[in-house]
Design brief:
Largest sheet: 4 strands, antiparallel
Shape: rod-shaped
Number of strands: 4
Structural class: alpha+beta
Low-confidence stretches: 1-6
Order of helices and strands: HHEHEHHHEHEHH
């Protein structure tokens, strides 16, 4: 197994780097900024609204005194100018909400709920990267261990080749014995080339994921077995389902506040004609300053028309999310059980792997002694050497499969 050392690449380090290197990681900043702007906008519900407007109109008729009254006024020396049909106004209006029925608060809560759903959706995508890292990382460890076993077998075959060559020189072995060992050596070295090529491919793929080059000399640390609390499922998807339900709850609150009455203070000031004193304007027909202030009350009851059906739609949407969560939990529990059973099986196999390797090594050493004494053929010796090599490879594979299953379970439960 690979050992830990200074500068060694670790699995946790790969988790961190792949998260930092993933293109969508910048989406967190974008979503957070957009949510902040939306929240600030929602908080402006109680900010005063200021409107500057103007208008110029021409009317077909205007308010006027009766002709008899105008004649009487002129006879008394008080001419009446009358209103002109062209009228003008430049107005400034300020409106301050006193109570909006809870709409601003509900809107801010809705913004928070949407931002939570968006963040958890990204978290879910990020968590899926860990499974891909696991495949690459443990694949590299398996191939490195296979290469190590390959090199050990190469050394073993070289030693037996020298023994066969010495025996052939003494007339106690055949040339075919040497040829058989050389064939196995050539086959072994072909397998090594293929392993080295596959290992480089895996390292290059992992390098793309973590965003940095991986040198051939770098060591991959074999992670330690970790304790997994199988009763604690902290999957991001489960939190995402809860966040979606909470988002629907904010929509319910929006429906509640939509039918509430609203109160506001307002003030208007304008310069133009006619003004509020219509009689003065009839007499002088001049531009004047005017103003008005008060409290408004507004209650839009049209929301009651669709409220019942809208509430039912939200209830059905929540039920749909709950069913999806239950289905996800059901599938997750099945997958968890499968991995746990596989881990138990690997622990059972681990107990016998060391004994199998010990026995295969003992058989191989005995066969080497028998071959040197001419008791068995080289084919029988090669068979025992291959059996030992396969036992070593299987032991390493089982150890790494056990570790991978443990870390797959950690990812499954988001621990």
């Amino acid at each position: 197994m690979a050992v830990s050392g200074a500068g060694a690449i670790t699995l946790e380090e790969c988790y961190r780097m792949v998260r930092e290197n993933y293109p969508l990681v910048k989406q967190y900043e974008l979503d957070e900024a957009m949510s902040e702007y939306s929240f600030e906008n929602a908080a402006m519900g109680y900010a005063p609204k200021i409107t500057l407007s103007g208008q110029a109109t021409y009317q077909s008729a205007v308010t006027a005194f009766p002709e008899t009254f105008e004649s009487l006024m002129q006879a008394m020396g008080t001419p009446v100018a009358g209103l002109s049909k062209d009228q003008y106004k430049v107005q400034l209006e300020i409106t301050q909400t006193i109570w909006d029925g809870g709409y601003s608060k509900a809107q801010r809560e809705a913004v928070k709920a949407r931002q939570e759903v968006s963040a958890l959706t990204l978290d879910k995508d990020m968590e899926s990267l860990k499974s891909r890292v696991n495949q690459m990382y443990f694949g590299i460890l398996v191939m490195e261990n296979n290469l190590e076993a390959n090199m050990c077998m190469d050394t073993l075959l070289e030693a037996n080749l020298r023994t066969a060559e010495s025996a052939a020189a003494n007339g106690t072995a055949l040339q075919s014995d040497i040829d058989n060992i050389k064939v196995e050596l050539l086959t072994l070295r072909q397998q090594r080339k293929q392993l080295e090529s596959s290992l480089r491919t895996y390292k290059d793929m992992l390098a793309i994921m973590i965003g940095r080059k991986i040198e051939d000399s770098e060591i991959f640390e074999t992670p330690e077995p970790r304790i997994v609390d199988t009763g604690m499922n902290m999957r991001t998807e489960l939190m995402l389902f809860d966040a979606r339900i909470q988002e629907l709850e904010t929509q319910r609150k929006m429906l509640d506040v939509a039918v509430m009455p609203k109160f506001a203070f307002f003030a208007q000031g304008w310069y133009g004609k006619p003004g509020l004193d219509i009689f003065k304007d009839i007499m002088d027909n001049r531009m004047s300053w005017n103003g008005i202030a008060g409290i408004t009350f507004k209650w839009d009851i049209s929301g009651f028309y669709t409220r019942k059906n809208d509430m039912r739609k939200i209830d059905m949407s929540q039920r749909s999310v709950e069913l999806q969560r239950d289905a996800f939990k059901w599938n997750s529990d099945i997958q968890q059980t499968q991995i746990e059973k596989e881990i138990d099986r690997m622990y059972e196999m681990k107990a016998s792997d060391d004994e199998i390797v010990r026995l295969r090594s003992s058989v191989r050493r005995t066969s080497e002694s028998k071959y040197r004494n001419g008791v068995i053929t080289v084919n029988e010796l090669l068979h025992d050497i291959m059996n030992e090599n396969n036992a070593v490879i299987e032991r390493s594979r089982h150890e790494l499969e056990l570790l991978k299953n443990i870390y797959d379970l950690k990812i499954l439960l988001n621990q």
